[in-house]
Amino acid sequence: MQRFFDAHRAMLDGALKAVAERTYWSAAPEVPSGKIYGETAKADAEAAFKAYIGKPFEMDHPGGRRLGKEESPWGFALGITYPSASVDELIAASRRAATGWASASVEVRVGVCLEIVHRLNRQSFLIANAVQHTSGQPFVMAFQAGGPHAQDRALEAVAYAYQEMAKVPAKARWEKPQGGGQEPLRMDKQWRIVPRGIAVTIGCSTFPTWNSYPGMFASLATGNTVIVKPHPGAILPLAITVRICRDVLKEAGFDPNVVLLGVDEATAPISKDLVKHPNVAIVDFTGSPAFGRWVRDNAARGAQVYTEEAGVNSIVIDSASSFQGMCSNIAFSLALYSGQMCTAPQNIFVPRAGIDTDEGHKSFDEVARGIAGAVEKLVGKPDRAAALLGTLQSEATAARVKTVSEKAKPLLASKPYEVAGSPGARTATPAIFVAEAGDPSLYGEEQFGPISFVVATANTREAIDKAVELARTKGAITGSIYSTNEAVLDEAADRFAAAGVNLSCNLTGGIFVNQSAAFSDYHVSGANPAGNACLTDAAFVANRFRAVGIRRPAAA
Amino acid sequence: MQRFFDAHRAMLDGALKAVAERTYWSAAPEVPSGKIYGETAKADAEAAFKAYIGKPFEMDHPGGRRLGKEESPWGFALGITYPSASVDELIAASRRAATGWASASVEVRVGVCLEIVHRLNRQSFLIANAVQHTSGQPFVMAFQAGGPHAQDRALEAVAYAYQEMAKVPAKARWEKPQGGGQEPLRMDKQWRIVPRGIAVTIGCSTFPTWNSYPGMFASLATGNTVIVKPHPGAILPLAITVRICRDVLKEAGFDPNVVLLGVDEATAPISKDLVKHPNVAIVDFTGSPAFGRWVRDNAARGAQVYTEEAGVNSIVIDSASSFQGMCSNIAFSLALYSGQMCTAPQNIFVPRAGIDTDEGHKSFDEVARGIAGAVEKLVGKPDRAAALLGTLQSEATAARVKTVSEKAKPLLASKPYEVAGSPGARTATPAIFVAEAGDPSLYGEEQFGPISFVVATANTREAIDKAVELARTKGAITGSIYSTNEAVLDEAADRFAAAGVNLSCNLTGGIFVNQSAAFSDYHVSGANPAGNACLTDAAFVANRFRAVGIRRPAAA
Hints:
The structure is a homodimer. By secondary structure, chain A is of the alpha/beta class. Chain A folds into 2 domains: 3-20 and 45-310 and 539-550, Aldehyde Dehydrogenase, Chain A, domain 1 (3-Layer(aba) Sandwich); 314-505, Aldehyde Dehydrogenase, Chain A, domain 2, CATH 3.40.309.10.
């Protein structure tokens, strides 16, 4: 059963080369084009998605009941129900499936993973619809981030897993010279890759596929069985994914329960019972710091826990070689998916005395207004706003915009905007506030959603200090700085790196601090409270399996 | 300051090749020969060691007081005192030393590590004396395990660290094609290796260097500062080691406090305060499961913890192609360093109905007596006994031999033996007992020291079941099986591997189950309670540092 591995060998080799060089590479075209994905792919997927609405999701899967209460942030209930098994049923089915999967060769397992990635790619339009109507992302983003970019992250994890497993030789002849003309000691040794056990992947509501795939595929490739626990508000994208996994597993002769879907409801969550279960050996978690901490503290003894939690991302403005370019770039970063990306900036630290720019000196107020104006321009037209901002995934985010607006000093007020054809869409344009560095009561906490602060600091040094301090105490996934002074950029690079923050410098064009490219950017450093792991590096996969040796004296 | 790296490049390359192939390789000759280490090396080291006795150990090191109450298990007090700093002083000094070390290049840091390994090798005779008179090992073993073999394990860790760090490219040009005849998006990216912080290595009393070096060197090479916390009964080998580390660091222009010695006394231990300290980011621990569990549960939030704890190692006897060879081989394994190796077998499971051998059928009693007789023969002469058994490191082990002897059914009684010239040596020949598989009250727990059990089972299947069950519940580092039946060997391989136990098959010659060869055998699987980590594999080093990126638009 090595045909999948052979079929996708070139894709794997491309990924292996890419993760080593970390230059640009992608296996999955990001353009939602009929020329690439088939002329009818878009319409077919939309029809398929519509056919799901209000019906039981068809899937041969353990579990006697059906659950599901997803609502599209674009304004309608999905009304889809999914097979739901108890924690005990999930664990039992996963354990039964384990032996066959664990004893498959590395190539067979990796081949199955590659085939799954390949089939996910063919369903990119379907997954785009599913992601759009659970996360609330705009369609193109749902296609790219939920489809090809997520598939690339999956492939990246498979490549690392293959690389790490391939490092363990299958066998070796050990021959130790002996003194005094004696024959050498000779041993024949073999090593087996032994998986950890059951892996649980806990998904989030904003990036249900992108954030779940790395852990899922890293665990799967290394021989573990996987239980995918979607956020109760974003089940469909992972249900489609799990169904594809199960199809491929079955075709390859494995028990499809190697990958299971653990569906629950917000009122009766199963995540805690899964995480604490003594048979669970690996947990991949994306979600809030509060629950992340609970997972880290309560996972079964000895379980490996990989988290992406959250943080407070900052931009530091020291000076600008293109004031307009800077303002536009920042505005786009604030607007994209209404600030609901883990990589989106929240705080923009600006010296109180203003900054030097290509347009001359700009006061603090001029900088703040420049950014606010660029946001207004960007989201001024409703159709453009919808395509950029999307919708708010949860009511809690909408409420947060209101609460913060009542407390903070306004710079740009948030307001709902109309989405043509989606009357119930939950929308809000970006809210921007001004703050003083000395009062971190609001900007000093994560304010998830379309909420940002232009924060006045004594100088650039204090701006960097505040950004780095927040990264160390609250976590940060991204940082950004604008400066025409190389010494300032160097200092920022040192300081942000030491705090485990990936830094972007002087972004003014078509790259935004929010973007994290598979095969090139390490997503999350694992070195501050925003998460304890990186998607994806060697450390993310190397401990998901163990090597066990068998040795015997060699025949003479 | 890359001269150390350049000087030892061939040694590093040899180690990198060896860990990939896992065939026989060694950088440090294990023969305690004057031809290799210098004709006067042995005598010089003995004189140097004697000169330490009863005096303050000379070392420029933080700490206002002096501590040290080591006693040689060979029968005399060392009376050496060491500089001792408080936990706060150690942490403060370590933090001050951190920045310079973290910002050194990978090559410079790895070069410093290689130079330290090289200098440790030149001091192998001195370290042998120090290990002998703290662990109680016989001299040749103290030389080999404490010197060259430990140095090889250190080098192995450095090689993995180099390999993992080298995987992260220093920089890359990212160039993403754009459609419609537009210029590609171009970014220049750099990545920095960022260490975790302060690493604490907690040493043990039986293998003070061998078990400490992998964690120490893995942390050091990856840019962390290291506090070495020796067992209060085995300080000298690590004090010599740390002094060499500090000498090399100083010569290379670094703050010597990059490596510190945390000396304490049994009555006022500092390990817990170190492990809990919020600045401690990595803990490497070798010791008891009880304290190991405490360390795992109480290490500072987010700290990486790597443990080697303990377990119950088993031999399963199904049948034998050389009954004498088997008995001799097992006897040697039981006798070597009086069973005080973490790899030494404790339980020998034998079918109650006996086994088939090259000498015909042997009853259970004949097998038990065969092994006991081989032990008696091996340790019958006091001078040979001393060279093989060494002494008992602690009074607790001596007491355990007595306690178990009062409860268990005797097969071979333990007795003290005389060591010429060492009247106070703490000695005991191996005690062997017989037991029934159904009564695990004694054999089912780790009985550390020269204590073993020949356990009667219903059949080979039950023997494997019991061995594997103990591995899963109590941990096991090694397993061993004797069988002339390939199907039995295959089943054992599957079962032991699934329980994370490295298995040796049919050892009858000059290789013993206790032996774990650097660059070839992965020591501890990390997949059962005997330890959560392996010395050394990629997973042991890959998470001791993080990669952080800095990106900016490329100049056109």
